[in-house]
Amino acid sequence: MHRPLGITVSRHIMDLQRMHPGATGELTGLLNELIVAAKTISAEVNMAGLADILGMSGKTNIQGEEVQKLDEFANNTIKRRMARCGYLCVMTSEEEDDVLPVKEGYEGKYTLAFDPLDGSSNIDVNVSIGTIFSVHRRRNAKDGFFRRRTDPGAGVRTSYVGRQGTVDDLLQKGRDQVAAGYIIYGSSTMLVFTTGEGVHGFTLDPSVGEFYLSHPEIEIPEKSKYFSVNEGNYPYWSDNMRRYIEFLKQEDKEAGRPYSARYIGSLVADFHRNLITGGIFLYPRDRKSPGKASGKLRLLYEASPLAFIVEQAGGRAITDDGVAILDIEPQSLHQRVPLIIGSRHDVDEAQAFLTGNR
Ligand code: AMP
Ligand code: P6P
After folding, report:
1. Ligand nearest to the CA of 119
2. What's the CATH number for 226-354?
């Protein structure tokens, strides 16, 4: 059977690199290493139902949440591979209290923030889950230098060598991201990412082990009819948030209301559906618990990368104060933010209600 001559993600990444004549290939290498990690995790996630990998690992993470075995596997897969890829100077993971150093002598000029397996509470019930990643350039990249070296099996390569990165290299605005993306492990495994030149989706053919371009130039519909929110938090919302959700549920045929509710409880799955079909996802501040006074979701490795993607796709991402997610100056690695993200028209409308202007 002749397989379609699809464009592989590696070909796509090389085409992007060619648009930057001075590029050394470091970012290309970084993205390709991330993709190998994603394929490894995908294989394990798809086996989870069969292998004895379901269930808890008996440990808890910085968020105080039970760490599931697949969480651990995904976290270890990414941090071990990326620590020695030679393109990073520092990393941070949702599963790790502190920054993750890279292998001595392999310091590169980028940083990586990642959520290895978001939505892990859904693992045991076969709901789609995902990996989210965000790449920045280190601060003061000029501190390093280029050198030629021959690695066993990797041949001769000219690479940038710098110093170990610090928290400061990670605490950068989302507006300054170099790349951001997610892998969704669902009915099929898809990689969706941007490097600032549009958003592109790739679907994994597991029989070949290749990601093929399946969703070129993704654009989120301007207006939608879906809203994604956990209405169980209604008693803890602000009055403005309650008014907005009530508004979406009022009948107004001309305006296309009432909207339909779609909430999976897995951020990557909810975001991905809204990116393709249009929709608005909301996780505002609530009074449910002190830790969530500023929202539940994390800035560096959840809100910021998804905000980069959605803005590149023509949508918006703000806090419930109307501040653009990409303009927030991060203060700490695991900082929470309220997140309102999706179709432009819907986020504009939500912003009007949430800031008391409607
Ligand atoms: P590099 O020398 O490989 O680190 O690339 C230098 C800069 O060129 C990167 O920080 C990006 O802004 C851009 N660039 C290089 N390769 C790519 C790529 N594959 N896709 C998108 N942008 C790239
Ligand atoms: P709630 C999963 O635990 C997660 O971090 C996101 O994937 C998801 O969007 C959110 O929490 C769901 O939270 O409070 O609605 O269960």
Report:
1. 2
2. 3.40.190.80
